[in-house]
Design goal:
Elements: E1 12-13, E2 18-21, E3 24-27, H1 42-53, H2 81-91, H3 94-99, E4 110-116, E5 131-138, E6 143-150, E7 155-162, H4 171-183, H5 188-198, E8 208-214, E9 234-241, E10 246-248, E11 252-255, E12 260-263
Antiparallel strand pairs: 1-2, 2-3, 3-10, 4-5, 5-6, 6-7, 8-9, 9-11, 11-12
Protein name: Tat pathway signal sequence domain protein
InterPro entries: Cu_amine_oxidase_N-reg (IPR016182)
Keywords: Membrane, Transmembrane, Transmembrane helix
Length: about 270
């Protein structure tokens, strides 16, 4: 059965089992039952007894080591760990490191992704040059920086810098957005709901499972300071108590560029 917590406003949104709690809404999630978790559920036990009665022997599972990963891949092989490290080191040279800023305000751009680049001119030959495409976000200038690195020569072949482009967020950005929300007065509802669900005090992102989405402002958005979202890097979070309910914080927008939390529709 679903369990709905509603503490402050005393009303439930029909059909959604959502209860408004302070400035956040906590949605209880049906968790899997324990039957079968220890192998003693009726179905599992019956099958085991039947097998024993027939004299069947279930072989033990064998865990094999993953094959050794080479320092360099070939063709369209996924990038190896060594290649990932090498590509990022090549892409972020000292001048770039000193001139950019990550999500936490430190030096160096925020890494978003490293992917194998599509072959040029449709060249799919096994010996075709392998290239990696590295995407960063520079919080100092609110720009998406993409570099293409030739894995054979170790050279950056192209660099693009775009404003107003907002790709999916990295895990580090989700964590930083969660820290900002917890520390902000508008995070009081989130912390109250977490306390209700666990009995503990919410102090860090590690106590939650957090996903979210990039937020872009629409015409006429309120408050007006959210109009920068799209040029700024903004996010709406979907936090969940570990092994517990979701907490609805969709009405809150975290602007990672200016490190503020704003409630939609206010002001």
């Amino acid at each position: 059965m679903r369990r709905t917590v509603h503490r402050h406003l005393g009303k439930v949104v029909a059909g959604a089992a959502i209860a408004v709690a302070g400035t956040a809404v906590m949605v209880a999630v049906t968790l899997p039952g324990t039957a079968g978790a220890d192998g003693t559920a009726d179905g599992a036990a019956g099958a085991g007894q039947q097998g024993q009665g027939q004299g069947d022997v279930v072989p033990q599972a064998v865990v094999e080591r993953a094959p050794a990963e080479g320092a360099r891949g070939t063709g369209r092989d996924p990038l190896t760990d060594d290649e990932l490290k090498r590509v990022e080191k090549i892409a972020v040279d000292p001048p770039m490191f000193g001139a950019t800023q990550n999500v936490a305000g430190g030096r160096g751009p925020q890494r978003l992704s490293v992917d194998l680049a599509e072959p040029e001119n449709g060249d799919t030959a096994p010996d075709a040059p392998r290239r990696a495409e590295v995407a960063f976000y520079d919080y100092k200038d609110d720009a998406l920086v993409t570099k293409t690195v030739n894995l054979a020569t170790g050279r950056v072949e192209s660099t693009t810098r775009q404003h107003g482009v907002q790709p999916p967020l990295s895990r580090a950005e989700f964590d930083e957005a969660t820290k900002l929300l917890i520390a902000d007065p508008l995070g009081a509802g989130l912390k109250a709901d977490f306390k209700d669900a666990t009995g503990d005090v919410l102090t860090s992102p590690g106590q939650l499972l957090v996903n979210g989405a990039v937020y872009r402002a629409t015409p006429g958005v309120r408050p007006e300071r959210l109009a920068a979202c799209g040029d700024h890097r903004c996010v709406r979070l979907f936090p969940k108590v570990r092994n517990g309910p979701w907490i609805d914080a969709r009405h809150l927008v975290i602007d990672l560029s200016d490190r503020t939390v704003v409630a939609l529709g206010r002001g």
